[in-house]
Amino acid sequence: MSNKNVQQRQLAEYLEKANRDASKLDQLWAGLDDDIEFVEKEYSSRYEVPCPEPIDKSKYNPYGYVDIVTFITHPHFLSLNPYPWQTLALKLFYRNTEGNTDIDVNCADKNEEKDCSKCVWKYVVDNELDNCLILEDGIEFLRDDFKNMKINNNVHILFVNEEMNQFDLNKNFIGYGLQGYVVTKKGATILMNKCHTMFIPIDLQIRHLCNTKELVGTTITKPYLKRQNNRVSSIDNSVTNMDNLNEKQDPNNILTRLLLKLKEKNINLDDFV
After folding, report:
1. How would you list the strands of the sheet with 180-184, edge to edge?
2. Phi-psi region of 264 (alpha: psi -120 to 50; beta: other; left: phi over 0)
3. What is the pTM assigned to this prediction?
4. Is residue 254 a part of any domain in this protein?
5. Does 152 share its domain with 222?
6. What is the pLDDT of residues 158-186, one digit of tens each?
7. Which residues of the chain have pLDDT under 70?
């Protein structure tokens, strides 16, 4: 690249930075003076809109590329408004490429992400419960002597459902479902940290944590409950009568499941992304 081209590139970068700084100063000035109402500047074309700063400013993004979501949504670029699943697909496709090494796959609202106020595990931690029995809807009780239930102090989660009471030759969980389980305060803390972002169905993700020993889990010989197979599912509004739902569970990651579902529904990927 000639010296003239290098200088032109540097000048363009300086101009973009100056435009960004000018926009920030306008907003700060309006915030300092109550008599001044900040009016967002209207631009006649996208070329007048200041270029946003890249999220990734590390050595892995030497040319200062913006992330894919900014490129899609920012008015300086495409100014599109994708659906949440489209945004997730883009993040997964471009993750760890230049400009996208710091991209956050989680689509949760940042305030919700911090407090997790609707999470039952947080309720256990905040109320300092030694342990808590958590039940799903659509279950069939096999026994009712819950007062006799005991959990070892060294265990984080005790599965009391029939479906998770299965092991392979290496003593790894091969069951499924969270129809009923007891979680300790330490277990709830681990689950909040490890399951904030879901990569696979939540019961399989928790099962994986148990099998990798990140979560100490166990079952009981005589389960308290099982899934009610003849009820209409609240997810797909149909009756699933299967003896082993492991045959139905999809262990693939979110991106693979997303693409397979698009193929199943014969949706053009160009239209989706």
Report:
1. 131-135, 180-184, 157-159, 217-219
2. alpha
3. 0.55
4. no
5. yes
6. 999 999 977 888 888 988 899 999 999 99
7. 1-41, 43, 105-117, 231-255, 257, 267-273
